[in-house]
Write a structure and sequence with these properties.
alpha/beta, five-stranded parallel sheet, elongated
Length: about 400
């Protein structure tokens, strides 16, 4: 039988204070779609042994010298807000830094000190306190929606509310405040620009549709939406969605980031704590628990780890198509897998003959006869010592 989890200890998180298992993700390939803190995130996966493909979908364009931000800051100082919603630490710090560069920081901080500060989470709270301020309230769920709901529950009629924007503003949230009688002042501290490396994005889309990667990791809702749009624009939308449903794990740092993925019918891995470190651990544990299989075969123990496979301890060199066949067969060791099922597992294949070709290449890569058996007019099976296939 298949044994998810691999060798003992692979699926266990490291003890507190201990470095992560350096071989935990050996054989796995991860697509990272983030621009901000990309080095930190990539390093966390690489230290666990994963291969990382960086494909930032968007980049943060700071507005430190932007005239719009300057005008808004002057307005906030001249017309102090009653409430200020701090949505991101980087955004709040950027606002204060931009004000400092313009010689407005002392006046801005005095105004903010008199306002009621509502922050979206611990990082925002840290940025507020680093500026010598104290928040009035922090959203337990770390979402802007909860901050807006809290304001509405308190009542905003006749109040001036400044909202520090975070790249992709949800206009419906701001409209809810306006509809309740608030005067909303939007503070645009940064915005999203286009992908810094479109070729890398294209490679990530192709690798995902070919199921040549094991996970795609998202750290912002705009990035999630941009990845799906880029796949659609490349003519790979349906293939990418099918891959993310079946063989490639989508992962999001939190529920807001997961939103565009869920709207597309996907169910991403989301950590309990919405932090990059928790995201890395959640992805690693999920992949090891669901994408590591050890199957006894006629040729020895077959181990699959993400994009790698070995037979009796010998690494197998397999391209994406035969690897897809091997994964599909290993899910049901000893059972017949129909050609139609195998065809569905093949990336971008429409001809049933492609299954025969891929199985032939798989057999060549395995190099041991009898591991993959043909069941005439029915399909193929991964032969196991327990006996003949059960006819499933």
């Amino acid at each position: 039988m298949s044994q998810p989890g691999g060798s003992p200890g692979h699926g266990q998180p490291p003890s507190p204070g201990q470095p992560p298992n350096p071989g935990q993700l050996a054989g796995f390939s991860i697509v990272l779609t983030s621009d901000r803190r990309a080095d930190e995130l990539a390093g966390s996966f690489e230290r666990r042994g994963a291969a990382v493909l960086r494909a930032p979908l968007l980049r943060i364009v700071p507005l430190v010298e932007d005239a719009v931000l300057h005008r808004v800051t002057v307005r906030v100082i001249a017309e102090p807000p009653d409430d200020v919603v701090v949505t991101t630490a980087i955004g709040f710090r950027g606002w204060v830094e931009a004000a400092d560069a313009a010689g407005l920081a002392p006046d801005l901080l005095r105004v903010l000190a008199r306002a009621r500060l509502l922050v979206r989470g611990p990082k925002g709270r840290g940025a507020v306190r680093a500026a010598g301020l104290v928040e009035s309230w922090s959203a337990p769920s770390e979402t802007t929606v909860e901050a807006v709901d809290h304001l509405l529950a308190e009542g905003v009629a006749g109040r001036r509310v400044a909202v520090q924007l975070h790249g992709a503003t949800d206009p419906d949230l701001l409209d809810r405040l306006r509809a309740a009688g608030a005067e909303v002042v939007e503070v645009p501290v940064y915005r999203w620009g286009p992908a810094p490396d479109p070729a890398a994005v294209q490679r990530a889309i192709e690798a995902t549709s070919a199921r040549a990667v094991d996970a795609v990791v998202f750290t912002s809702a705009p990035g999630s939406a941009a990845f799906l749009r880029a796949a659609e624009a490349a003519g790979r939308g349906a293939e990418v969605l099918a891959a993310l449903r079946d063989d490639v794990v989508p992962a999001a740092v939190g529920p807001v980031t997961a939103g565009p993925l869920r709207e597309a019918g996907l169910e991403p891995v989301v950590p309990d704590r919405y932090r990059l470190g928790a995201l890395v651990r959640a992805v690693a544990d999920h992949l090891v628990a669901t994408r590591v299989r050890t199957v006894p075969t006629a040729g020895g123990a077959l181990e699959l780890r993400g994009q790698s496979a070995s037979l009796d301890g010998r690494p197998l060199t397999l391209s994406p198509a035969p690897m897809a066949m091997l994964r599909a067969l290993a899910r049901l060791p000893g059972q017949i897998v129909a050609r139609e099922t195998l065809l569905a597992a093949l990336p971008a294949a429409g001809d049933p003959h492609a299954v025969e070709v891929a199985v032939g290449r798989l057999r060549s890569g395995i190099g041991v006869p009898g591991v993959v058996r043909t069941v005439v007019k029915r399909g193929y099976c991964l032969d196991v010592p327990a006996g003949p296939p059960d006819g499933g």
